[in-house]
Design a protein that fits this description.
Blueprint lengths: L11 E11 L4 E8 L1 H7 L7 E4 L28 E4 L2 E4 L4 E8 L3 H6 L7 E8 L11 E7 L3 H14 L4 E8 L13 H5 L5 H4 L4 E6 L6 E2 L2 H11 L7 E6 L2 H13 L3 E5 L15 E5 L6 E5 L6 E3 L6 H8 L1
Parallel strand pairs: 8-9, 8-12, 9-10, 10-11, 12-13
Antiparallel strand pairs: 1-2, 1-7, 2-6, 3-4, 3-7, 5-6, 13-16, 14-15
Length: 323
């Protein structure tokens, strides 16, 4: 699945809200239906691509439903669109169904919680470049940190449907069990048989959970869980590929581990993408120039958000050089 196999659309479309429900303390699942040209535009969306949603007219929730940390910011006017990746894209005969898992992090995502079924949202997309699946891989390891899970859920769907020959394992990490952004709970029985996360189990994909406080699964960072799996499963590194999405510090650790073990790795970066179409230049990612000590800046919204892990200069790397 080459990066240029899907063209990015910068046209705005109308999406109809079908579901917008709370699935955790701060997490929601939004399901949108697209019809006609909009359905065609999103039908072949790559895992990792995203849409920019206009939330300027979305209402605020009642005062008692506004988190204390957002009470001073909620009245800000929402001018810019907000980017959201997809946890699933399902192209049907008469429509395309988009599923988005989101977290309340600011005034815009808080307003998104108030949209109701049959309400219409204006979206631009699909945007950016997503994950690609090389022909020579037999094992795919999906590594998610916090809210990095949605595009990897979408990737899991594609792998199960179009590449069943690839053995896939998902790793999901968070600070604690309550910070795992999944619908449904993990339980000890499903964990013992290797399928604790229903979002991946429904595709027949094994999974492992890691929490920093040990409240679920592996006690420690998800990269430690990944490293233990690699040690326990002796496979040809050239046949493995790692896909990761999450906080940049986690991505830097995943990239370092992949480089040490000579495993190909693709990462989905997060930046503030004010426009999503390369106009505002606000989402720059510093990247290495091959066979050189020089670097260049690429745009997360157009060149990414998925990058080869080897090319990214992580903030942790830059900070270490200042010491």
């Amino acid at each position: 699945m080459a990066k240029d196999a899907h063209k990015t659309s910068k046209t705005s479309f109308t999406a109809v809200v079908v579901v917008n429900k709370k699935i955790g303390s701060r997490f929601y699942k939004l399901v949108l239906h697209l019809f006609k040209q909009a359905a065609d535009a999103f039908a072949n969306t790559q895992p990792g691509q995203f849409a920019e949603i206009d939330l300027s007219s979305a209402a605020l929730p009642p005062a008692d439903q506004i988190p204390n940390e957002l009470s001073d910011r909620v009245k800000r006017e929402i001018i810019l669109r907000r980017p959201f990746s997809f946890s699933s894209v399902d192209a049907r005969e008469d429509k395309t169904v988009l599923e988005i898992i989101y977290c309340i992090v600011g005034p815009a995502s808080l307003r998104l919680t108030t949209v109701i079924p049959e309400q219409k949202l204006n979206i631009i997309g699909p945007l950016g470049n997503g994950f690609n699946i090389p022909d020579n891989k037999t094992t795919a390891l999906l590594v998610a940190g916090g809210m990095g899970t949605p595009p990897l859920q979408h990737l899991a769907k594609i792998l199960s449907e179009k590449h069943p020959e690839i053995y896939t394992v998902a790793f999901a990490g968070a600070k604690s069990k309550s910070d795992l952004p999944f619908e449904g709970r993990t339980d000890e029985v499903s964990e013992e048989i290797g399928y604790p996360i229903q979002a991946f189990a429904k595709y027949g994909i094994e999974s492992q959970v890691a929490t920093n406080d040990g409240s679920a699964g592996y006690n420690g960072p998800v990269t430690g869980c990944l490293n233990d799996w690699l040690k326990a499963n002796e496979k040809d590194p050239s046949e493995i590929i790692i896909y990761a999405c999450g906080p940049e510090a986690m991505l830097a650790d995943v990239a370092k581990l992949a480089a040490e073990k000579n495993i190909d790795c693709q990462i989905s970066m997060e930046r503030r993408m004010a426009c999503g179409i390369g106009v505002c230049q606000s989402c720059a990612v510093e990247c290495k120039v091959p066979d050189s000590n020089e670097t260049v800046y690429k745009l997360c919204c157009e060149d990414g958000p998925v990058f080869n892990a080897k090319e990214v200069v992580f903030l942790t790397e830059k900070n270490s050089h200042k010491l």
